[in-house]
Automatic annotation (TrEMBL):
Residues 29-72 are annotated as: Disordered. Residues 29-40 have a biased composition (Low complexity). It comes from Lentibacillus salinarum. This is Spore germination protein. Residues 41-72 have a biased composition (Polar residues). Belongs to the GerPA/GerPF family.
Length: 72
């Protein structure tokens, strides 16, 4: 069935899906890449991390890792 949508103002969408009117297939997509060194994501009250010398190489020579395309 057709639908009529009036004036809309969307300030921001953070990880959600916005659907107007009829829909057959909704497929929200996202990709991300995080480069982090040793001990970067540790959490806790009494944390002791001994990493020594470390290095994180964020260089990505192939450029494309997870491509998003089309609707399916």
């Amino acid at each position: 069935m057709p639908s009529v949508v009036g004036p809309i103002k969307i300030n921001s969408v953070d990880g959600g899906v916005i659907n107007f009117g009829d829909s057959f297939y909704l497929s929200p997509k996202s990709t991300s890449k995080t480069s982090s060194g040793s001990g970067s994501f540790n959490t806790g009250d009494f944390l002791n991390t001994n990493s020594g010398v470390n290095s994180t190489n964020p260089v990505d020579p192939d450029i494309n890792d997870q491509n998003l395309s089309a609707n399916a």
